Fold:
Amino acid sequence: MTKKKTPTATPTDETKQAHQDLPFDPMALSKSLTEAYSQIQPIMQSWMQKQQEITMHHPGGMALDPMNATRAWVDFMQHLYSDPQKLTEMQAEYWRNWMTLWQDSARRMAGEDVTPHFAPDKGDRRFKNAAWQDSALFDFIKQSYLMSSRWMNDVVRKTEGLDPDTRRKVEFYTRQIVDAMAPSNFILTNPDVLQATIESNGENLVKGFQNLLEDLERGRGKLQISTTDYDAFKIGENIATTPGKVIYQNNLIQLIQYEPTTKDVYKRPLLIIPPWINKFYILDLRPDNSFIRYLLDKGQTVFIISWANPDKRLAMKTFADYMKDGILSALDAVEAATGEKDCNAIGYCLGGTLLTTALAWMKGRGKGEESRVASATFLTTLIDFEDAGDIKVFIDEEQLHAMESEMSERGFLAAQRLKDTFSLMRANDLIWSFVVNNYLLGREPFPFDLLYWNDDSTNMPAAMHSYYLRNMYIENKLTRPGAIKIDDVPIDAHKIDTPAYFLSTKEDHIAPWMATFSGARILGGDVQFTLAMSGHVAGVVNPPTSGKYGYWKNSNITSSPDTWLANAKHYEGSWWDDWIQWIEGKSGSKVPARKPGGGTLKPIENAPGSYVKARAE
Structure:
């Protein structure tokens, strides 16, 4: 359908001004919506009929308050109303803002140039359509939303007397409400959707509804929003393609040794321990941003753990099993493959927490085994979980008890539960942007390897996950000497004297950098702390060729995080180039390159192996 031309308005022509403030033809929109509804109705009837034929089973049932939010809200409201004067002041401020906005809008309708009082934050992509600025109507909708949402967040922040956990929960839930109610998320208040509806005669809404039903079917009745084109990627073919061999496996891990790309390599090999919440190929997405290829090109002999995607057969695997069958078994295999008694190790996120535990356990045994790890690199790793960020909203005794009930039936926590949690932590980017794109605009999501990886989550074994959440997030035992014991060996991270390099990212919403900084100060050896720009993934996977971001360094980690940053020196570019100099100083002399299978362990299959290809149902 040909888009109707919007009449040109002048400040003195009220009729034309009114038409300008509606950047669409109301009659054309009404016709398009009617046409869309007539096509959507039979699709909905067909889908409902299919659902009646499906027997759904929800382990553990659906709790009335699965996030244990009610108690936090009640506590917040009690504290809010306990100070009537302050509440009255905040309400008065709200109405003053409304009066200002109404006056500005009236002046603009009269033809005046008015500077907006409430502008979107830098980088807020929800309001990039020109109509949000050019149309007085849409500018008013935008500003009223921004004003109200900021006021709501301010009310929570200014309410005194809340304990930190309750405040964090209420702030988080308030952001969820605010994000959900953005005008960009609704048909009649999103100019992009209105334009698409008129131009396509409502076909965008029909296609969007079909996309919605497909995502409901993919989730077996629960909405699983598609974030990328899942048919565009295949592990081992166009992602995770660095050549190598699986040289060792047990029921929990496969160990991959990669083909060298240099004639000579450093004598000391390098072992990478990724997290088991996601899969290792975040470090090997494409040749141009592969951290693994970068290491190979720098002369490292690289090994990486590929964790199994657990089902109920691994339900009883414990955190200690992950240490023993994971890290310790991998250390044995690296020695068998290279003949070297020690190696450098990298732990990423949860893999770094496990590496900390393993180092403390080997140190605690008093047999000198900790020397098997010559240096330890910790990427976005939490050791001190006291201020672990928004993830703690989802972790308390009540929620953990409900989670344990669910896991007792299945034997694991389903990967989708974790994915939903992390999506809520970045709702605008990982939920609402796709609601608009997929369901309102009726478009297919763009093929994006990072989002393919993000969707490729893994299950968590019941025993391990329960132990991890309770002992780390709830009780923060890793910070207390001897609070954790494995095989009667007390775990004391303070006694770890292995040279360490901590890499954290400034905008990390999963492992906040101030919390990782606190953990770095616990270790007893020489520690280098580096803070990179960006977030948990983009800040880590930032090759030098990208020319993006930068990082801060400061050798003094005895001060507070704020003081450390204030005195840190900023460098442009990727932290990779800084870290590679550090690790090369701990990698020994050069030796002829090692081929996978050249030691006592023979290849089992080609990289990336079979474990990484197992998708969670």
In short: DSSP finds 20 helices and 17 strands in the chain. The chain has two domains: 17-51+67-201, 244-392+401-410+448-613. The radius of gyration is 27 Å. The chain has a mean pLDDT of 90.
